[in-house]
């Protein structure tokens, strides 16, 4: 985002063809950046590290927000809105927390012409200010649990930024809950992790591995951090959501205490959890192909695009017919758009919608109209089908379900095919170098993790849970591939390079 | 918000009774602050001038957002997300704009440990950065119009703050559109003003006056500013939404130009418009009474509350029965809550829901259950009705519509009764002192406005449009009540004290 999205922006697509993007196999990074721009998802901004989310990206994010928000409410959570600013001294109150975030903080030192004695920071996350407020709201165990969340921006300075994946300002929900005991808090952490897993699998068609982070990869201040990890098409991992058990650390720092059922005083056990706008990066990098994006139908802003292919003298008539067809599909709950643009060729339109990843395209020409048929093309296939119009309309929901399932299967197969099991450091290094994920026994020593990272750029992604959908098998008695010490965790754990 | 909402918060309601709030007639300001707190709408925060919006307030805001957002989309607008920060030099580029906002700016001077050569400000509004981005996106008249909006926070330092009404951080949508000519831009400005008017009248039950601001009350940088003005129950006005025609000023400052149909170069004509979280303040202060809030059913987070009134031995049974009743109402599209709390008295619950302004309360006791009846009470009435259960369920939608209409009528009558027509400065001063709005002829001289404000704290609210719902009559030949000069505007205009 350091390059400005303003005037300097026009006509710069060197490697890409007129309509297309650099193929993934040629340069995955260029492919990504071009897709983000050309699909109208986001643009660079004049603010260091921040992006502008454009209409198509914003519509996608709104769908994500709506699904999650409905589920948060359905599971008893309440939304609140906390200030964007946090007094600097709050951040400092939890020792690990400040160490983790200090280098990334945006600091407000002035309001109007007045220099502030006590600066504010733009929130990198809100545990501290929420803890402070909770202290005022909490009296008795009867008040608990607090099941809170908010949607908003957070701010963490990034040197090397990449739209959606790593931006200085990003968008998320942050869940914050407080409980009377550890068991209830840990159940919440797990429930949310499972909710995230379900969302990724069923809505975004992203297979993800549920697991616990190693100590050195924990959230700043957490007792336990759980994550869902997905594999991108270049083999790198992307941490797609996190759920933290914070113990009583923040409660002690902010005096979040209550009278227990037994009339004693205790500190609340708290949790926090988040999925951010980087999930859009995961979606792009999991489902794309050389032609651009592939939007999972269950989240796609546009599920079906209708392209009227008339000539000048009957274009308006074809558009009107397209609108009628769209109305039929809309009645069936399908999200449809009619491409009314004139002044661009049909070829341009086709490429444009392929690039934007719209799951189904319907072409509607005058001869098709006469014959009572339409031409249907799925984004994940090269074939065009000519179908009776009613059949095309009637089968659309099922067709979209088919594409959704196809995307999940493709991504799952890819992840499984690109994960290897190793028992030596040489094999480990070769696999990582080859862009794979690795399953291996590890001793759990943070110093060993540090060394591995230095050598290979690979880190522990997570320790898959016993009931994680993937890589969950328990295997006792293993030996660390790196140190030769006895394995921790009672199972092979997951390593990979990450975004 | 300068007082902290944290630990200092507990047990401070001096004037109010155990359950209630200070009556409006005793102290409107205390009434407002107590209602905001006790109804769980918002709390003070440890950040100067910022509030915390609590669950009930957040649910209300979400309903507001959803209605407006649907309408923006239905009228062809697209959402985007722009950065929260703006380079300081952007603000300075439009002369009136910087003069208007400079004293209120939150300035970021540091990221991590690095002092910034060019500081950022937290956006007070986004015309400048959006103009900058548009310059990069706009080439030809074919690209226009841009019909954009975003939801988010903005930041304007406030010395004396008041929840929802005046906070340093507040929540809003800001619409920003760009057009090829003035007529289209002005039509947009008007369309949005009418949309706001409809929203206030039909959803929030707020009668508002559509009109144009006088020159001295315009938005910083605008050619024309239109507003909707509502009357609070203390007679003060609250500007509840604004829609601005910005001419080409921001386009020139940010180089937002395009090739016209005639192959010439021109600057876009831009607009901006907003309704913010202060509309919640308007809602509270328009519809409340001595017992607390009165939520208009069309926006109420909870339209019907069911209070099971069992004793210890049958309370669970009554709650279960309440859930069955709730399910029936939910099926009819009614938003219902069952009050499952034990450990508080029925009287406490009744007062609590009255204070929160829930439009209808249903009481459900064991004897009612046997008799097949329920007790129903409307928030806007002192009477309880005993109704056959099916009748109560079947008539609920109509009942809610009746309450909605009652609220609009009460507010409209109040506004009309408390607006007086005057022709002399003495009458003007007396009316303003008496908490009225005034309709009067005015010469249009900004210096006269300034003097009137200094004398009376009253300002021009707006010049009602010819088709404003209220106070629209044209009357030629009037004489200014203040200067004796010929009247401008061709009609009486609206003065009042304001929030």
From TrEMBL, chains A, B:
Question: So what EC number does this one have?
Answer: 6.1.1.15
For whether the record's keyword set contains Manganese, the answer is no
> Which reactions are catalysed by this chain?
tRNA(Pro) + L-proline + ATP = L-prolyl-tRNA(Pro) + AMP + diphosphate
Q: Which SUPFAM superfamilies match?
A: C-terminal domain of ProRS, Class II aaRS ABD-related, Class II aaRS and biotin synthetases
User: Which InterPro entries does the annotation name?
Assistant: aa-tRNA-synt_IIb (IPR002314), aa-tRNA-synth_II (IPR006195), aa-tRNA-synth_II/BPL/LPL (IPR045864), Anticodon-bd (IPR004154), Anticodon-bd_dom_sf (IPR036621), Pro-tRNA-ligase_IIa (IPR002316), Pro-tRNA-ligase_IIa_arc-type (IPR004499), Pro-tRNA_ligase_II_C (IPR016061)
Alphabetical GO biological process terms: prolyl-tRNA aminoacylation
Q: Which GO terms describe its cellular component?
A: aminoacyl-tRNA synthetase multienzyme complex; cytoplasm
Q: Which GO terms describe its molecular function?
A: ATP binding; proline-tRNA ligase activity
Question: Where is the Aminoacyl-transfer RNA synthetases class-II family profile domain positioned along the sequence?
Answer: 49-296
Which class of enzymes does this protein belong to?
ligase
Gene3D superfamilies the record matches: Anticodon-binding domain, Bira Bifunctional Protein, Domain 2, C-terminal domain of ProRS
- Domain notes, please? Consists of three domains: the N-terminal catalytic domain, the anticodon-binding domain and the C-terminal extension.
Q: How does it assemble?
A: Homodimer.
Q: Which family does it belong to?
A: Belongs to the class-II aminoacyl-tRNA synthetase family. ProS type 3 subfamily.
Function of the protein? Catalyzes the attachment of proline to tRNA(Pro) in a two-step reaction: proline is first activated by ATP to form Pro-AMP and then transferred to the acceptor end of tRNA(Pro). Can inadvertently accommodate and process cysteine.
Name of protein: Proline--tRNA ligase
């Amino acid at each position: 985002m350091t390059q400005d999205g303003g005037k300097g922006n026009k006509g710069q697509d060197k490697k890409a063809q007129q309509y297309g993007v650099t193929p993934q196999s040629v340069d995955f990074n260029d492919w990504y950046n071009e897709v983000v721009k050309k699909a109208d998802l986001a643009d660079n901004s004049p603010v260091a590290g921040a992006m502008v989310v454009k209409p198509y990206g914003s519509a996608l994010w709104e769908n994500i927000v709506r699904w999650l928000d409905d589920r948060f409410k359905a599971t008893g959570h309440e939304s609140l809105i906390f200030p964007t600013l946090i007094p600097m001294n709050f951040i400092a109150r939890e020792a690990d927390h400040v160490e983790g975030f200090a280098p990334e903080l945006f600091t407000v030192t002035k309001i109007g012409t007045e220099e502030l004695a006590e600066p504010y920071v733009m929130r990198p996350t809100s545990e501290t200010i929420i803890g402070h407020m909770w202290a005022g709201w909490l009296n008795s165990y009867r008040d608990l649990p607090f099941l809170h969340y908010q949607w908003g921006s957070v701010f963490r300075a990034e040197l090397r930024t990449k739209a959606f994946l790593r931006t200085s300002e990003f968008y998320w929900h942050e869940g914050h809950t407080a409980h009377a005991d550890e068991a209830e808090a840990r159940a919440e952490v797990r429930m949310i992790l499972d909710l995230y897993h379900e969302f990724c699998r069923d809505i975004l068609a992203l297979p993800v591995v549920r697991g616990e982070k190693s100590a050195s990869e924990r959230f700043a201040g957490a007792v336990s951090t759980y994550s869902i990890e997905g594999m991108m098409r270049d083999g790198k991992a992307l941490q797609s959501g996190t759920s933290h058990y914070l113990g009583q650390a923040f409660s002690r720092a902010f005096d979040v205490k209550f009278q227990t059922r037994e009339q004693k005083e205790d500190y609340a056990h708290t949790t926090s959890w988040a999925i951010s706008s980087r999930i859009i990066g995961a979606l792009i990098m999991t489902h794309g192909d050389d032609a651009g994006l592939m939007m999972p139908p269950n989240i796609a802003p546009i599920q079906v695009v209708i392209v009227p292919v008339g000539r000048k003298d009957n274009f308006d008539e074809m558009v009107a017919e397209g609108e009628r067809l769209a109305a039929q599909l809309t009645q069936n709950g399908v999200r449809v758009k009619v491409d009314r643009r004139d002044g661009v060729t049909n070829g341009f339109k086709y490429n444009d919608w392929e690039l934007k990843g719209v799951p189904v395209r319907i072409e509607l020409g005058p001869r098709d109209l006469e014959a009572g048929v339409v031409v249907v093309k799925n984004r994940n296939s090269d074939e065009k089908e000519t179908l009776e119009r009613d059949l095309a309309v009637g089968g659309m929901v099922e067709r979209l379900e088919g594409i959704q399932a196809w995307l999940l299967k493709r991504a799952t197969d890819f992840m499984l095919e690109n994960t290897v099991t190793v028992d030596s450091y040489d094999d480990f290094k070769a696999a990582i170098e080859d862009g794979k994920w690795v399953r291996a026994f590890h001793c759990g020593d943070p110093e060993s993790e540090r060394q591995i990272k230095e050598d290979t750029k690979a880190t522990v992604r997570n320790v898959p849970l016993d009931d994680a959908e993937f890589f969950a098998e328990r295997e006792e008695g293993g030996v660390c591939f790196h140190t030769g010490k006895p394995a921790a965790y009672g199972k092979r754990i997951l390593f990979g390079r990450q975004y």
